[in-house]
Design goal:
With 245 residues, the protein is an alpha/beta fold. It is built from ten helices and ten strands. It has a six-stranded mixed β-sheet with strand order 6-7-8-3-9-10, with helices on both faces. Strand 1 and strand 2 form a beta hairpin. The chain is globular.
């Protein structure tokens, strides 16, 4: 744990009945850093960011932001403090327009300094701004989800499988947008299955399995780690352009 880090996750435990989804997970993240959180389905990746975002309360351990423990601070308060996220399956307000979706999110959190002046334009949805959110494709709804998160001026952005279902051109565009945000100081945890996408964003990854970290380091080192390559990622897929593990 780093006392100077923006985010510290210290020995976090999360249980669902008799199932332990997180078993002593620790990580730290600095301003402007992108961390890739990878591993097989059910390894605890999304549960980890659910705890950080406040969707779940931990059963043990602690999450601190700017050196202060978040305890059981609810999700909307964390958003006001500068933590926000995207979801695997976006759920926009379908009765509202695209721009209204973004405005509602921003108004709910209050006045925070934004990295981008117009989140709708930033994610490429200007042409759909006055249309119903229900008319968007699944990929466009993911971009709307990102725009809503950006409207709250996050210092920490938790990105949950944003790349899924996007074509190569869209993947490159999204990667460039996230790297721009990082260059402006936004810290990110990116949960992702697509190793090529992760490789565009960062070399710093944590590999999880059964609620624990089994590896932390560079993506290139992960490709050479016997436990990682044999059980979780697959030697050929770590270096493959957009292969899935």
């Amino acid at each position: 744990m780093s006392h100077d880090a923006l985010l510290n996750v210290n020995q976090v435990v999360k249980r669902f009945g008799g199932f332990t989804a997180l078993n002593g997970v620790s990580l730290s993240l600095n301003k402007g850093e992108i961390l890739g959180l990878v591993g097989p389905n059910g390894s605890g990746k999304t549960t980890c960011i659910n705890v950080i975002s406040g969707l779940y309360s931990p059963d043990g351990g602690d999450v601190s932001f700017h050196g202060r423990s978040l305890g059981r601070t609810p999700m909307f308060r964390r958003a006001q403090h500068g933590i926000n996220r995207t979801f695997q399956i976006p759920k926009p307000f379908k009765a509202l327009t695209v721009r209204e979706n973004v405005e509602v999110a921003g108004a709910y959190v209050g006045q925070r300094k934004r990295i981008v002046d117009d989140p709708v334009d930033f994610v490429g949805l200007s042409a759909f701004a006055d249309g119903s959110a229900s008319s968007l494709t699944s990929g466009q709804q993911k971009m709307l989800d990102l725009a809503r998160a950006l409207s709250t001026g996050p210092e920490l952005l938790l990105v949950d499988e944003l790349a899924a279902g996007l074509n190569p051109q869209e993947l490159d565009s999204v990667a460039r947008k996230l790297m721009f945000l990082a260059s402006q100081g936004v810290a990110m945890i990116v949960v992702e299955h697509m190793m090529g996408f992760v490789n565009q964003l960062t070399q710093h990854v944590i590999v999880m399995n059964a609620g624990r970290e089994i590896f932390e380091g560079t993506l290139s080192a992960a490709a050479k780690d016997p436990q990682v390559t044999a059980v979780y990622l697959g030697q050929s897929e770590v270096g493959a352009g957009d292969g899935r593990h």
